[in-house]
Design goal:
Blueprint lengths: L2 E8 L6 H11 L2 E11 L2 E10 L5 H9 L4 E7 L8 H14 L4 H9 L3 E4 L6 E4 L2 E4 L7 H15 L6 E4 L5 E6 L5 H10 L2 H8 L8 H8 L4 E8 L2 E10 L5 E8 L8 H16 L3 E6 L5 H8 L2 E8 L2 E11 L7 H4 L4
Parallel strand pairs: 12-13
Antiparallel strand pairs: 1-3, 1-4, 2-3, 5-7, 6-7, 8-9, 9-10, 10-11, 11-12, 13-15, 14-15
Helix pairs in contact: 3-4, 3-5, 4-5, 9-10
Keywords: Acyltransferase, Transferase
Enzyme class: transferase
Protein name: GNAT family N-acetyltransferase
């Protein structure tokens, strides 16, 4: 039965040195499956994953490497994960930890190729990463590996999307929070309670209800985020921020139930989306409205966001700047009646 091994060694930086090592391993009846170059202070470490023929011992592999002037610093058995490129392996480990936080230790072990990762203070031969102690006997951890592991922990420990409390102009309490698949029925109810005019202004079509298959996409857009406004057990508003494919630009859209319009809900929702846009590095938000529908411009003004408009393809293109805030304009009675 063949065995797969992972070797790490230091090699002089001279032409053909690494090629000679691989030739030597081939002569020892080993098949090279993967090669990684790891930056370290003052140079690099070379790492090779090989499948050795029956009867080839670890000592034989170490001798083959040393015979070409390399200093072998570690050898261990390898598994199928070692045949995946490092970025892919790290992304898979991150997904494991994010999906199940109880698997964070195992994700760290995979990223570090460690012998063990446990909770607690590091002892002799271990390194400390937050609340975790990692040990690896076959080779020392490099700074690159430790930085990668810390980035994984930073991702797992990142705060969940925050909820925002909102008091409307007339004192009603709402919560603005990220939407999720669990909100499908509530969002369907929001659309069912909205008037034909509100629906037409949002979707630019005469549909009365939203097809069920759209709900998942509304709540979990593939290139964006969704925020819902909730009062009690009802979702009364929904806003989306979608990446357009242009690096600095995202598309924004709002839907506020008729009974909650003209109460500051739309302005608060747009302000929350603008904050998310600023955090994501967007410098422009774009919305598409019917030429006669200017409520979004007034909503942006109420939220303190600078906005400009132009006609394009029969629609009104509203450009909102999420970074530089405009002075909030007092809302007159006439404007308030039209502002969502």
């Amino acid at each position: 039965m063949t065995t797969t091994w992972r070797l790490r060694f230091e090699l002089s930086d001279s032409p053909g040195a690494l090629a000679r090592v691989t030739v030597r391993l081939a002569a020892a009846d080993c098949n090279v499956l993967a090669l990684h170059v790891i930056p370290v202070p003052g140079g690099v470490l070379d790492e090779i994953v090989v499948r050795a023929a029956v009867g080839v011992l670890p000592a034989d592999l170490v001798e083959a490497v040393r015979s070409e002037g390399a200093k072998c610093v570690g050898i261990t058995r390898a598994d199928i994960r070692d045949l995946v490129d490092e970025p892919t392996a790290v992304l898979r480990a991150a997904r494991m930890a994010l999906t199940d936080p109880d698997q964070t230790g195992e994700a760290l072990r995979q990223v570090l190729a460690a012998d063990s990762v446990t909770v607690g203070e590091a002892g002799d031969g271990q390194v400390q990463l937050g609340e975790w102690a990692a040990r690896r006997g076959w080779a020392r951890f490099t700074q690159v590996e430790l930085t990668r592991a810390q980035a994984l922990l930073d991702l797992v420990d990142a705060p969940a999307p925050s909820m925002r409390a909102l008091l409307t102009d007339d004192g009603a309490a709402l919560v603005l929070r990220p939407g999720s698949a669990a909100d499908e029925d509530a969002v369907a109810g929001l659309h069912a309670r909205s008037s034909m005019r509100t629906m037409f202004n949002r979707y630019h079509s005469g549909m009365r209800t939203v097809p069920r298959r759209w709900l998942h996409r509304l709540l979990s857009p593939p290139r964006g985020t969704t925020i819902v406004g909730q009062c009690g057990d009802q979702v009364v508003a929904l806003g989306q921020l979608i990446h357009t494919g242009t690096p600095d630009c995202a598309e924004v859209s709002l839907l506020v139930e008729d009974a909650w319009q003209r109460r500051g809900v739309g302005a608060a929702l747009l302000d929350a989306l603008a904050a998310d846009a600023r955090a994501a590095g967007f410098s422009e938000l774009v919305a598409w409205c019917l030429p006669s529908e200017t409520a979004l411009v007034r909503t942006a003004a109420r939220a303190g966001l600078a906005a400009t408009t132009r006609r394009e393809d029969g629609l009104l293109r509203v450009s909102i700047t999420p970074r530089e805030r405009a002075l909030k304009t007092p809302i007159t009675t006439d404007v308030a009646e039209k502002t969502r």
